[in-house]
Amino acid sequence: MPETDMLKRHGKTFGQILKDTSPAMAADYKPEHFLWDVDGKVATITLNQPAQKNPLTFESYAELRDVFRALAYAEDVKAVVIAGAGGNFCSGGSVHDIIGPLLDLDMAGLLNFTRMTGDLVKAIRYCPQPVIGAIDGVCAGAGGAIAMACDIRYGTPDAKILYLFNRVGLAGCDMGACAILPRIIGHGRAAELLYTGRAMTADEGERWGFFNRLVDSDELLVEARNFAVRLADGPTFGNAMTKKMLDMEWTMSLEQYIEAEAQAQAICMQTQDYHRAYHAFVAKEKPVFEGN
Q: In which region does residue 131 sit, left (phi positive, over 0), alpha (psi from -120 to 50) or beta (all else)?
């Protein structure tokens, strides 16, 4: 199969779905390579090849990338949960569907692939909705990168995070790991994991700040969704601004990020949610936010 077909072959994209619907309703989307459920204002993505611990293929990479890109235009989704089926999150790139075929690609084809995988991380970070990772069992390679890209991570005591790139003769700098992981757990800890490929245990992940919380496996998805509902019921315009600023301020000076936050907050003060919160406070009521 030509390399361009391997990288691009997947079903009707979320973007195409959105062009056919007005307003843009993510609940109408029917993915080909994972499960998709929209309940209220929360979308849940479930990687669903449990017998293989939910590996990624060229097609699922591309469809996930497209979905997260298109979420910027989805009017019915205010928070996203991503999980894996069968007690594991994601085992990384499929050995037979990705690792093997990559051996036959030339440099241009390999770069197309590595750029696409990085585009998935960018799409997760750039979508305005908070993304909550619900991580159980094996979370390896690209699975670890997806988890790393989430805004919030819930784990279980059985969760194991492995950045395996070193074990297969590659560098640890894959899908943004050398930039994002140190910001979550610290430079020295990230360096150890990326140099050795060893597992970060659930206990380490919680102590180091990778996991926001550990819960039992049978409670994982419920807890992650409950938190997503809480965010989706909040001031979602403000939440989207917070996410944007968390990313943008990485490369700003003190002068720049103080000014950027001043402008961002002034914009938020023009929203109706800000007015609703004030009037609810005066009336001693709980504010009902509408995201505008």
A: beta
- In angstroms, the CA 212 to CA 143 distance is 17
3-state SS, one letter per residue, for the chain: CCHHHHHHCCCCCHHHHHHCCCCCCHHHCCCCCCEEEEECCEEEEEECCHHHCCCECHHHHHHHHHHHHHHHHCCCCCEEEEEECCCCCECCECHHHHHHHHCCCCHHHHHHHHHHHHHHHHHHHHCCCCEEEEECCEEECHHHHHHHHCCEEEECCCCEEECHHHHHCCCCCCCCHHHHHHHHHCHHHHHHHHHHCCEEEHHHHHHHCCCCEECCHHHHHHHHHHHHHHHHCCCHHHHHHHHHHHHHHHHCCHHHHHHHHHHHHHHHCCCHHHHHHHHHHHCCCCCCCCCC
Specify the pTM: 0.90
| Confidence at residue 242, expressed as pLDDT on a 0 to 100 scale | 96
The answer for 209, left when phi > 0, alpha when psi is -120 to 50, beta otherwise, is left
Please say whether the beta carbons of 224 and 230 come within 8 A: no
In this prediction, the residues of the chain whose per-residue pLDDT falls under 50 are 1-12, 17, 21-23
b/e 250-259 (16+ beta carbons within 10 angstroms → b): eeeeeeebee
